[in-house]
Amino acid sequence: MAVKKKSFARAKAKTVSIHLEADEIQGRKPVLLFTASQIDEVLAEAKIQMLPFAPEYLLGLCAWREQALPIIDLVRFFGLSSLEKKGGERYVVVRTVDTVSLVDDGDFRSEKVLLRCVLKVSDQIINGDIPADCEPLYPKQVGFAPIFVRGLFRGEKEVFILPDIAAIIRSNSLGGVE
Question: Residue limits of the CheW-like domain (predicted)?
C-alpha cells in the first residue's frame, strides 16, 4: 500500500503596501511594506501636538485610544526627498513587538512589549503581495542604516522597504546609530 503524502498549504501573511511620496530609489518608487496584522488603523487626519527640540522626522504626538503615540514621517527619517503631494495624506497606526532585557535581583530576563506609533503616509495604501521576482538589497546600498530596516527588495518598478518600527521608535535613545 502506497503512503499518501499530505500537502500543506503555506501560510501566507497578508501584506499592506504604502507608496511613499518621495524621490525614487535606484530608479524605482519607494514602497513601505507591512503585514496586515501590524496595521491597527488608518486615520484620515491626526491632531498633532508638536514637541520642542524633537528631530525633524518626529512630527509630534497624537492621542489614539487613550494613548499618546509618536507621529513619524519615514520619508524624513530615511533622508529621502519629499515629492509634491499627488493625493492626500493619511496616518497609519502601526504596531510591533519588541524584546527588552531586564535585570531583576541579578537575574537577566527578557520580556516582549507591544509598541505603537503613527506614520504619516500617502493615501496610496494597497493590500497585496510583494512580487516574487524581487531581489534583496543591502540597506547601505541605498543609504539606509541597516538597524532600521528588516528587509529591502528591488522589484521591477518599486523598492520595497520593510522598516524595523521598534528600532525606529527607540532611535532617539540610540544616538548616532549607523
Answer: 12-174
